[in-house]
Structure formats: structure tokens, C-alpha cells
Design goal:
Structural class: alpha/beta
Largest sheet: 5 strands, parallel
Strand content: 15-25%
Distance between the termini: 21 Å
Shape: globular
Number of helices: 10
Radius of gyration: 16 Å
Length: 236
């Protein structure tokens, strides 16, 4: 089984995902929000690229969620803070979600056999599920503004470490994946601080979302794994 980690969405080619399992990572905050919403009873989340696509899907029982440059989109029901996606807000409902980077990464991965969503909150569960699917694995970091994001890289390193823990015969992990594993192991006892000090974390703190950063830094809080089925992220 081959495992490749891609630093950001612009370095990914859709053709590279065919017949593979892709794990999309956007720790701050899209995949953290998706995991949280499903954990609180959301029926499904449709990740779309544009605001217009989201608005076209609006109908009774469907909420619109998302952000542009960290801020809630005008006229939407929810932003991209996982703390907004409470049981009271989303249980039994569906959400169409559009974000600056994370939902774009999910869309780009659609040619894969399986598309999973991972973050710090569900890394162990996602790693185990991807091994059960018995295909080569690509961990796609969403990144920020077409650049690598530290928080996504650390999560990728956590995922690689979990894969090693659960599989004795990984054939190969690419060099970037190995480097991110070493980075995670060096930082595992101060993940909260690393996320707070990252560029993405500092930006969210400036926007008033410091609690989001602390929440997203929690490791393996949930056992659920979101999977893309017919354009909706649902519980696997």
C-alpha cells in the first residue's frame, strides 16, 4: 500500500486520485466542521466550491454554511466555525458548505474511489477506515492561498503515524509524508500551541475565533469518519 501526502490543493492532479482513497485535511476549519456537524446529528454536508452553487441548493430543510477569508458569508445560516454546528443547530438537517479551501479540495478529489474527511478530531478513526478500504492512500492537505499550512501538515503527520501503528506492511510513504510524521511526533505534546502559533491560527485569533483553534487542536475526540457519497459527506 502506497501512501502519498500532498502539501496543498494546487499541487494535486485529479488523475492521481483514480482508484485510490483520498483523505482531505483542512484542520482550520472545513474538515473539523464537517466532523463536528456529523457528530451532532447532521444528516449530511454537501461541499461546494462557490457561493452561487450553495445558494442554488437552498430549499426547506437545507442550511447554508460557509466562509470567505474566515468570515461568515452574508445571508448564510452558519459560518465555518465548528462551534456553531451544535446538535440544536444541525441535528436532522442537511448543510451545503462552501469554504475558501477545504471544500475545493474535496471537489478536486472526486475521481477517487473513496473521499474521506480528516482532522485532528478524528485522525485515528480515519486512518483505520482508510486501511480497511485496502487501496493506495493520498492525504490531501487543503493549504491556504495555494500554500502549505502547518496545521494541515501536522494532521497529515498524525495520520501517517496512525497508519504505521495500524499496518505492518505499508509499502512506501512519500518523503513529504515522512517529514510530516516527524514534525508531528516532535510537536505532539504541544499541538495546541503549534496551531495557535501557525499562520492560520493567528489569522483566526485576529478574527475572534481563538476558541475554534483550541477546539480543532483536540486529538481523536471522535470515532466517526465522513465519506463522500453522491456529493454529500455522510457518516461512513
Amino acid at each position: 500500500m502506497q501512501v502519498d501526502v500532498i502539501p496543498n490543493v494546487t499541487e494535486a492532479r485529479s488523475d492521481d486520485f483514480v482508484q485510490k482513497t483520498v483523505i482531505v485535511v483542512d484542520v482550520l476549519r472545513a474538515t473539523s466542521t464537517i466532523v463536528t456537524a456529523l457528530a451532532h446529528g447532521c444528516a449530511g454536508i454537501a461541499p461546494v466550491e462557490t457561493v452561487q452553487q450553495a445558494k442554488q441548493m437552498r430549499e426547506p430543510g437545507i442550511l447554508l454554511g460557509g466562509e470567505r477569508f474566515g468570515k461568515k458569508i452574508s445571508g448564510f445560516d452558519l459560518g465555518n466555525s465548528p462551534l456553531e454546528y451544535t446538535e440544536e443547530a444541525v441535528c436532522g438537517k442537511s448543510v451545503v458548505l462552501t469554504t475558501t479551501h477545504g471544500t475545493r479540495a474535496i471537489q478536486k478529489a472526486q475521481r477517487a474511489s473513496f473521499v474521506l474527511a480528516a482532522c485532528m478530531l478524528n485522525a485515528a478513526a480515519c486512518a483505520r477506515k482508510s486501511l480497511e478500504l485496502n487501496r493506495d492512500i493520498v492525504i490531501l492537505c487543503a493549504g491556504t492561498q495555494d500554500h502549505f499550512s502547518l496545521e494541515d501538515g501536522l494532521c497529515a503527520g498524525l495520520l501517517v503515524d496512525e497508519l504505521y501503528r495500524n499496518c505492518n506492511d505499508l509499502e512506501e510513504v512519500n518523503d513529504f509524508g515522512k517529514a510530516m510524521r516527524w514534525a508531528y511526533l516532535a510537536a505532539e505534546h504541544r499541538i495546541r500551541e503549534e496551531l495557535m502559533e501557525s499562520s492560520g491560527g493567528k489569522k483566526l485569533i485576529r478574527l475572534g475565533f481563538g476558541e475554534d483553534v483550541l477546539y480543532c487542536a483536540q486529538i481523536n475526540e471522535y470515532e466517526l469518519v465522513p465519506v463522500l457519497k453522491d456529493q454529500w459527506m455522510i457518516r461512513f
